[in-house]
Amino acid sequence: MARNFYYFNPKTLSFEKGKTDWKTVVKRLLWFFAVALSFSVLFLWISFYLFDSPKERILQRENNELKEQLEHVNRRLDAMDVVLKDIQERDDNIYRSVFEAEPVPVEQRYPFLAEDTKYDNLTSQEAKKLLQSIDKKTNRLIVQLAVQSRSLDSIADMAGKKAEMLAAIPAIRPLKNMTHISSGFGRRYHPILKILRPHTGIDIAAPKGTPVYATADGVVSRESPGSGYGIAVVLNHGYSYKTLYAHLTKKAVRPGQRVKRGDVIGYVGSTGLSFGPHLHYEVIKNGVPVNPIHYFFNDITPEEFDQILESSKVVNQALS
User: Fold this and answer.
1) How many whole angstroms separate alpha carbon 24 and alpha carbon 27?
2) Which residues, 6 or more positions from 70, have their beta carbon under 8 angstroms from its beta carbon?
3) Burial environment of residue 47 by CB neighbours within 10 A (0 to 12, 13 to 18, 19 or more)
4) Among residues 67, 176, 258, 284, which is most buried (max CB within 10 A)?
5) How far apart are CA 260 and CA 252, in angstroms?
6) Considering the chain, what is the average pLDDT of its residues?
7) DSSP three-state, residue 79
8) What is the 3-state secondary structure (H, E, C) of 14-72?
9) pLDDT interval class at 115 (50, 70, 90)
10) Cβ count near 216 (within 10 Å)
């Protein structure tokens, strides 16, 4: 049934009766619902995409914290990578070269190049705990790498000076083709007092004028061992080593002169408190005389060393 209503007609300037049927009502309702639905959709879009909910704000804050932790860990890993590459460089070019070894193959150094996806499904809380654990381990590794790097620095320094250090060790015999010792190191009978006294070197009998050779690289020292040694030469080799050559007939070097292993530094004589031409030879390590025959290994055969060793064991009278 149609409903009557009145409306104002501007043409006639009067109210006229109108009629509304059910089709018109349905159309108007549909239009109303369409407009309402559009506004609802617009409101929801504005609410969800332009304004964050409290839960979203919490999640955003957690994400920001995780991002900061990741950046912090990443910077530390970059620092570790620099130190590790330095260690690898020295390992390949210094330490392994000392022993003539091949560098470590790339596939052994980087066995983890394949992609790993076991962390793809981590929750936020799990990721936070994992990052905290990684951060602690990273801190420990950085400290350990720093200590190891300093240790390798000192080893690299020693490796660089290896040739210099080896040249400073008194490693040859002071007289050519020497195979016999007149008096060895240790307690020997004094030639005058005829009692056992410490003998701080070895005595090697040889004809007067026999050349005496420096047993290691070094510098001729200005120190005097004492008048009892007669004409003597003291060489300072560095690395805590010194050698003494006594009872010479004359010197072939001057104080402050740098000599090489095998250089002639003097000639056998019998000056000072000496009973016949011979060389009194001492090796001094850290200020303490040591047995020189333990340093004969560069220019000697096993048979020659055995002869020297046997003759040095005889407890006899020293020549000086």
Assistant:
1) 5
2) 131
3) exposed
4) 284
5) 13
6) 78
7) helix
8) EEEEEEECHHHHHHHHHHHHHHHHHHHHHHHHHHHHCCCCHHHHHHHHHHHHHHHHHHH
9) very low
10) 25
> Alpha-carbon torsion 197, 200, 201, 205, what sign?
negative
Measured from the Cβ of residue 280, the count of other Cβ atoms closer than 10 Å reads 28
Is 96 in a helix, a strand, or coil?
Answer: helix
Residue whose structure tokens are 């000192």 = 154
Strand partners, 281: 202, 245
Please report which confidence band the pLDDT of residue 20 belongs to, taking 50, 70 and 90 as the band edges.
low
Task: Tell me how far apart the alpha carbons of residues 280 and 167 are, in angstroms, rounded to a whole number.
Answer: 22
Confidence of residue 114 (pLDDT cuts 50, 70, 90): very low
Instruction: Name the helix (H) or strand (E) containing 291.
Output: none
Whether pLDDT at 214 is above 80: yes
Q: How confident is the model at residue 246 (pLDDT cuts 50, 70, 90)?
A: very high
Compute the distance between CA of residue 241 and CA of residue 127 in angstroms, rounded to an integer: 60
Helix (H) or strand (E) holding 220: strand 218-220
pTM of the model: 0.55
Query: How far is Cα 265 from Cα 246, in angstroms, rounded to an integer?
Result: 11
**CATH no. for 186-312:** 2.70.70.10
Nearest-angstrom CA–CA distance, 214 and 201: 15
